[in-house]
């Protein structure tokens, strides 16, 4: 390989390393863009479970945080294909921590938003490079009350990347989020939890038929929902609503099995990608420091440095391709999904978000046919 190409590649990669250096991290923390790293965090696990105090929790697939300006991707160290996969991967890891905390009802990962969940958690990836992971988490219950809107930051060390590790390098960030949500939940009374459950069900019912269920809730000026009254316990309409809701959860549970498969399939490659990304950033930081001091420019050492950078670049591209192939295989595996309702078989096609939308529309059509109520446009 000729020397001009080496130099061009070196300058390209050195420019890409501007994000994530210790100086930049400290500056972002001081500016309030990033909070300090969470450090070592032990997950709090409830020893006793009170069924009456459980809330179901839904994790929406994260926003990958990819800027529209493609020219900024390289500068910010963003690999769009990997970010798209991370957006589905990270909620699955967070789900494991939430389940392990033993304080929630059913915890699901959803491919699309659903504001009628008892507790809805959304996330956005701010930064991810193998050293630093920064994500913004927002949690909001069915009443519209925001529990949490916070940015979390975790930094890895070499000890977080042992060979064949079964622990996620950023396990502490998921423990911190789970602990914070658990602490907020512990402050609720039994009556408040029951109120959230009732409002969640009625908001879902109103999404099927505002005419039949809109009168049970009031929306305040600040956007919070207030329960006016409950339907009768034996209300046949509510029986249908619960059945439709359970059919929707049937699909979500199928989705979660597939997300679990994605997690298992991509975990080894993704682990290596992050580990190599970390080593690459550290090496480039070291090279920049040596280049700034002009200690070995033009010497044999600089050639070795360029060779190492090229090898790091080549390895990261191989891992990038491996993750992209995993994602492509995952997308092909999810189509189609076959589900049955009352003896009728439905075949869903496309990605999981498209299938979810199809399934919801099918269930709403079934509800409309059964009740004779006007169809609701979505």
Features:
378 residues, alpha/beta, five-stranded mixed beta sheet, two-stranded antiparallel ribbon, 53% helix, elongated, disordered N terminus
Account of the 3D structure:
The protein is an alpha/beta fold and 378 residues long. 53% of the residues lie in helices and 14% in strands. It has ten helices and nine strands. The chain has a five-stranded mixed sheet with strand order 2-1-3-4-5. The longest helix is centred in the C-terminal third of the chain and has 57 residues, at 236-292. The termini are far apart. Mean pLDDT is 80; it is low at 1-20 and 295-300.
In short:
It is built from 10 helices and 9 strands. It has 378 residues and is an alpha/beta fold. Residues 1-20 and 295-300 have low confidence and may be disordered.
What share of the residues lie within helices?
40-55%
Mean pLDDT: 80
**What is the CA–CA distance across the termini?**
57 Å
* Low-pLDDT sequence parts: 1-20, 295-300
Name the overall outline.
elongated
Q: What sequence of helices (H) and strands (E) makes up the elements? A: HHEHHEEEEHHHEEHHEEH
- Tally of helical runs: 10
Lay out the secondary structure.
Blueprint: H1 3-16, H2 22-30, E1 57-60, H3 71-75, H4 80-100, E2 107-110, E3 119-128, E4 132-141, E5 146-155, H5 171-186, H6 190-208, H7 210-213, E6 217-219, E7 225-227, H8 236-292, H9 300-333, E8 337-341, E9 344-348, H10 352-371
Parallel strand pairs: 1-2, 1-3
Antiparallel strand pairs: 3-4, 4-5, 6-7, 8-9
């Amino acid at each position: 390989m000729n020397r001009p190409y080496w130099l061009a590649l070196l300058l390209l990669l050195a420019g890409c390393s501007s994000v994530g250096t210790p100086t930049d991290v400290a500056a972002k923390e001081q500016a309030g863009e990033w909070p300090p790293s969470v450090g070592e965090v032990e997950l709090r696990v409830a020893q006793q479970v009170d069924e009456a105090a459980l809330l179901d929790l839904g994790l929406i697939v994260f926003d990958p945080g990819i800027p529209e300006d493609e020219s900024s991707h390289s500068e910010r160290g963003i690999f769009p294909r990997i970010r798209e996969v991370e957006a589905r991967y990270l909620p699955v890891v967070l789900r494991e921590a939430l389940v392990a905390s033993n304080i929630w009802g059913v915890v699901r990962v959803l491919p699309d938003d659903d504001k009628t969940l008892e507790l809805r958690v959304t996330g956005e990836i701010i930064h991810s490079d193998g050293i630093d992971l920064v994500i913004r988490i927002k949690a909001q219950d069915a009443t519209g009350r925001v529990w949490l809107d916070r940015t979390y930051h975790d930094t890895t060390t070499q000890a977080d990347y042992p060979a064949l590790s079964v622990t996620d390098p950023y396990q502490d960030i998921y423990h911190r989020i789970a602990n914070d949500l658990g602490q907020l939940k512990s402050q609720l009374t039994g009556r408040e939890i029951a109120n959230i459950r009732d409002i969640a069900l009625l908001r879902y019912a109103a999404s099927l038929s505002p005419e039949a269920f809109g009168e049970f809730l009031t929306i305040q000026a600040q956007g919070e929902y207030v329960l006016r009254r409950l339907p009768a316990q034996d209300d046949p309409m509510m029986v249908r609503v619960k059945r439709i809701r359970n059919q929707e959860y049937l699909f979500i549970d199928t989705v979660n099995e597939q997300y679990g498969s994605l997690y298992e399939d991509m975990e080894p490659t993704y682990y290596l990608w992050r580990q190599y990304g970390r080593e690459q950033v550290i090496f480039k930081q070291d090279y920049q420091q040596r280049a700034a001091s002009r200690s070995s420019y033009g010497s044999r050492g600089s050639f070795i440095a360029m060779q190492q950078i090229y090898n790091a670049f080549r390895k990261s591209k191989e891992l990038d391709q491996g993750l992209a192939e995993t994602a492509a295989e995952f997308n092909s595996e999810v189509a189609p999904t076959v589900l049955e309702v009352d003896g009728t078989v439905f075949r869903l096609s496309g990605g999981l978000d498209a299938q979810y939308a199809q399934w919801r529309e099918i269930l709403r059509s079934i509800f409309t046919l059964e009740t004779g109520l006007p169809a609701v446009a979505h």
